[in-house]
Amino acid sequence: MSLINKLRKNSTIRETEILTDSKFFTAKDMIQTPVPMINVALSGKLDGGLTPGLTVFAGPSKHFKTAFAMLLAKSYMDKYEDAAILFYDSEFGAPAGYFKSFGIDTDRVIHTPITDIEQLKHDMMSQINNIERGEHVIVIVDSIGNLASKKEVDDALEGKSVADMTRAKQLKSLFRMCTPHLTIKDIPMVVVNHTYKEIGLFPKDIVSGGTGVYYSADNIFIIGRQQEKSAEGLTGYNFIINVEKSRFVREKSKIPVEVSFEGGISTWSGLLDVALESGHVVKPANGWYQKKGEEKKYRQNDTDTKEFWMSILADVTFRDWITTHYSISNSSLIAEFTDKIIQEEYENV
After folding, report:
1. Residues 198 and 76 in one domain
2. Does the structure show a pLDDT above 90 at 167?
């Protein structure tokens, strides 16, 4: 028996395997959404999507955070007919009608109201511990932003007004315990959170909840918002997904997503800006657009169609440009570092 097989056999952990054979390092389960640029935000690829692990949408109130979570849940359930949603609810801002507006079958949703972090932690660990790899479950938490700790609740009931120093520790404990199970059991978890402004001359948005969220998350998105107006008034919003942390996408990337009051999320959100930057769409005159190499001109509203985008999305050069522009490089940093050392030694001879 070779040494490598001896070490594998002697392990007391059931999932221990040679790295090249490990199921945790093979191709990850990828949940593709119907919005290409959201796939880019999640994975750096147009045909990518949500992977197992922790994804956080953070931002102020009314910034479409719950809707983004619903979109991912719907995409998961579309891929797996036997899938179920574990929905932990602390804000009750998503009534049954909200699920139905996304086409989610509410008979496949387990709704669990929660009042404090410890309650969430105990129930979530009980649920996840009893899920087997291969069972299709997505966890949604809406939200941890206003969720109190048990100590904070108990102090209020006893009439105490002391500061609560346990909340961040309890959140860190929650994510520390559940994160390994998400990868081992192939479970995506989407958490809605809040942000606050740091104190300073140029304050930036900070995700609430302490360092536990940052350490555990695969993706942290801070949502910004701009109004979309016409002559008739406000017609919707342009939301900006700011990539605060990602294991797949370059941090500080900005992904625009257009949402109108009439049509909801635009499938083709953000593509026009990206295609202009890549050169696959050009602007021959103010208010007009052309596909590269074509003579036909389009108004902006006419670009928001499947017919306009399918040929561009099928273009390998456009897909490669997206991947190169947004994905984290997989090139060998060790090789580059070694080459630099060799070059410096050669120059010093």
Report:
1. yes
2. no
Q: What SS3 class is residue 289?
A: strand
Range of the domain at 278: 270-349
Rounded distance between C-alpha atoms, residue 252 and residue 264, angstroms:
26
Kindly report, residue by residue over 334-347, the tens digit of the pLDDT.
Answer: 555 555 554 555 55
Contact criterion met (CB below 8 Å) for 49 and 75: yes
What is the b/e burial string over 222-247, where b = at least 16 CB atoms within 10 angstroms of the residue's CB?
bbbeeeeeeeeeeebbbbbbbbbbbe
The amino acid at 313: L
pLDDT in tens, 283-292: 999 999 999 9
Q: Per residue in 110-164, pLDDT tens?
A: 999 999 999 999 999 999 999 999 999 999 999 898 888 888 888 888 888 777 7
Distance CA 205, CA 132 (A): 37
Question: Would strands 53-58 and 219-230 be described as parallel, antiparallel, or unpaired?
Answer: parallel
Closest CA to 243 of 49, 28, 55, 46: 55
Give residue 156's pLDDT: 86
Same domain, 201 and 56: yes
Residue 152, Cβ neighbours under 10 Å: how many?
Answer: 20
Choose the final residue of a domain: 202, 227, 256. 256
State the Cα–Cα distance between residues 211 and 168, nearest whole angstrom. Answer: 8
| Domain shared by 132 and 280, yes or no | no
Reduce the DSSP state of residue 242 to 3 states and report it: strand
Residue at which a domain ends, from 234, 256, 278: 256
Q: Which pairing describes strands 188-193 and 137-142: parallel, antiparallel, or unpaired?
A: parallel
Contact at 8 Å (CB) between 209 and 244?
Answer: no
Q: Are residues 98 and 225 in the same domain?
A: yes
How many whole angstroms separate alpha carbon 183 and alpha carbon 288?
46
Which helix (H) or strand (E) element contains residue 212? helix 211-216
* Tally of domains in the chain: 2
Beta bridge partners of 227: 237
Where residue 75 falls among pLDDT bands split at 50, 70, 90?
very high
| Residue length of the chain | 349
